[in-house]
Amino acid sequence: MEYPYSNFYEFLLAQAQKRKRKVALFDGDRKITYGALLENVDRLASFFAANGVGEGDRVALFLRNSPEFIYTVFAVSKIGAIIVPVNTFLKEDELSYILKDSESTVLVASTVHEHIVKKSNGPVQCRFILWEGESPQSDEKNFAFTEALTHSGEVRHIARRLEDTAVLIYTSGTTGKPKGAMLSNKNLLSNIEFSRKMIKVTHKDRVIVFLPMFHAFTFTVGVILPLYVGGSIVIIKSLQPFTNVFRQTLMKRVTLFFGIPSVYNALAKAKLPWYFMWFNNIRVFISGAAPLQPKTLNAMAKKFTRAKLLEGYGLSEASPVVCVNTLEKQKAGSVGTAAYDYEIKIVDEDMNELPTGEIGDIIVKGDHIMQGYLNRPEATRETIVNGWLLTGDMGYLDDEGFLFIVDRKKDLIISKGINIYPREIEEVIDAFEGIAASAVIGVRDEKSGEIPVAYLELDEGIESINETVLKKHMREHLANFKLPKQIHIIEELPKNATGKVLKRVLKDNLRDESR
């Protein structure tokens, strides 16, 4: 793949020169043009440089969705530093761990998260904190964005190369401590090009960003991609009230809507006003982060006849998009195909490629694969083998190269030597009326080795379901050895920031209850 740019700042500069008066960012009633965006980025870069931030330094972002998040990303790129987006749902100990592990020297934070920041090691470890919103105090270690964006002075662009690390994305840490995936300019620009071609994104598109900008999916496809092509971003700072998302979608004539399954589950059931259905400009819905239920796909297709809902698949270590269904061809249950220099293989435990249709480990290769985990050479060697990224997911490819995810390898249940894939059971349970979502985990059992146990979250307004009828429904669609031996109805399944169910929490809770 050929790359017209080597880093983020280069393409922003090119777009600002070409589209100076075009609106790049919509922030509520405020419109920020490409010219103004570049000016703010340059001022912020000058402020950073004047305060000792330089090439290779790590700048951590503990920011809500905001123009300031975007200014920081491109300012950091201009001075050759490295961006560290941090999950704002984390607590002080978790934030402290990432700041220390990444060796971040600067923290950019929103004042809405002040109580977490103040309790973390940020005030001690970092040279200074730059606050989005009113700075809680004014001294040599605390600055307000309003001050930084009035900074004058020139700073030259340190033109980092394609191979240089641009971003450290921390994995969700489902096992052990989170690890920093080192993503180069090439990794991210490759993924942006891939996504642009697959979804046919152009300068005419407007993207609504309500998912957290710190997440790999939103960061690459929701924030960087629109600006790369000269499009526009509609920024949503808070999901409350969610009706504001629909209002902004309609008023700002949004064409690309990036969401997660829980959003589409709600959208499929919501009674939207006729004028929204009639006048919205959405041409594509994109879903990532977790599997979509077939009933949601069908309901969305019936409801939005002028738009396509495309399911994709990715992971932080792949920058993050691996594959996606296309506008030309989609397959229900599939996460799409890889193209444009990306490869996907299904292999056995000895890395031997398996025949079409056979379930195995999913491995991927291409310019989007991370450089490795920060300061973790052993973990890197275990995850990247001969250039292939071992995703930890299991699935199969059909004869047209469409990928079907079966389950996470670590979630696989082995009962009496037979493999049981929780996702297969979950799909059957989710199809039952009254169930919003389900999660199936494996629990140790003396006789079988492991047994499947199901946790159910009911639709809003539903207080109970007939378990006898549910079990009959499962017996009609599943072999006896796959049937959950226990069923627990809980108020809400534990999820991370992007709606992915945290099965380790369910396992820990069950373990605690059995003690």
TrEMBL record:
Keywords, ordered alphabetically: Ligase, Membrane, Transmembrane, Transmembrane helix
Positions of transmembrane segments: 207-229
The keyword Membrane belongs to this UniProt entry's keyword annotation: yes
PROSITE patterns: AMP_BINDING (PS00455)
Domain AMP-binding enzyme C-terminal: 424-500
Signal sequence extent: none
Domain AMP-dependent synthetase/ligase: start-end pairs: 14-374
One annotated GO molecular function: CoA-ligase activity
Pfam families: AMP-binding, AMP-binding_C
Family per record: Belongs to the ATP-dependent AMP-binding enzyme family.
The name this protein goes by in its record: Long-chain fatty acid--CoA ligase
Organism per entry: Sulfurovum lithotrophicum
Organism classification: Bacteria, Pseudomonadati, Campylobacterota, Epsilonproteobacteria, Campylobacterales
